[in-house]
Amino acid sequence: MPEESATENDITVADVWEYLTQDEWEVALGLLEELGDVQPPPLSFWEALATAAEQMRMEKSAAWCHWRCHETLNGMIRADLTLRPAAEARRQTPISGAGVLRPMWNIGNRTPTGEPALNIAMLWVERTPFLEPGGRASVRLAPLAPQQWQHLEPGQVITMHEDRSVAGTAVVLEVQRPAATPTAQE
Questions:
Q1: Which residue among 48, 57, 60, 74 has the highest number of C-beta atoms inside a 10 angstrom radius?
Q2: DSSP the chain
Q3: Could you report the per-residue pLDDT of 1-59, keeping only the tens digit for each?
Q4: pLDDT tens digits for range 121-162
Q5: Cα distance between residue 141 and residue 164, in whole Å
């Protein structure tokens, strides 16, 4: 938040600098990560934060900043995911929340023969390190082929698959298209 319009509850550049001068690097990095949710920063912001996190050996923060680099380039999809309970699904263990899982998704695309086409997207579970079978959480999806996901809209229901059976159901909450990148002529 700009200093001149900040209230006492807003985070400003001065707040971040104060933590840096006190050698509270992790806190400063965390504040900067949160600032990225207020107004979308440029790719260079996330790249610099990823580098800083890597230098501090903060693997999860580095992974998050790399994830945000991907979203800056390819757009962002958030959804409310509910996994099927262990008694009803193949998965018996929690899924990692840190962007490791790459499940398949039925997002409404079809093969040339009319069958459902499954599309792959990495999964990041927000605000929790893992999601238990039967659990529910907000997630972010990073499609491997983002152009195939352009038709998604908030409110649309999509299904997650780890095999032929449905592993979970998600309702799309938010879709942000990638920011237009300037061409060399501009």
A1: 74
A2: --GGG--TTS--HHHHHHHHHTT-HHHHHHHHHHHHHHSPPPHHHHHHHHHHHHHTT-HHHHHHHHHHHHHHHH-EEEEEEEEPPGGGSS--SPEESBS----EEEEEEE-TTSPEEEEEEEEEETTSSEE-TT-EEEEEEEESSGGGGTT--TT-EEEEESSSSEEEEEEEEEEEPPPPPPPTT-
A3: 455 555 566 666 676 666 667 667 677 677 677 776 667 788 998 899 899 989 989 89
A4: 999 999 899 999 999 999 999 999 999 999 999 999 999 999
A5: 20
Cα 14 to chain center, whole Å? 28
Give residues with Cβ within 8 angstroms of 30, minimum separation 6.
61
Q: In the prediction, which pLDDT does 180 show? A: 57
Contact between residue 133 and residue 92 where contact means Cβ atoms under 8 Å apart:
yes
- Determine the distance from the C-alpha atom of residue 18 to the mean position of all C-alpha atoms in its chain, rounded to a whole number: 29
Find the angle CA(33)-CA(1)-CA(76) to the nearest 5 degrees.
45
Q: Which of 181, 81, 184 is nearest to 138 (CA)?
A: 81
Amino acid identity, position 122: M
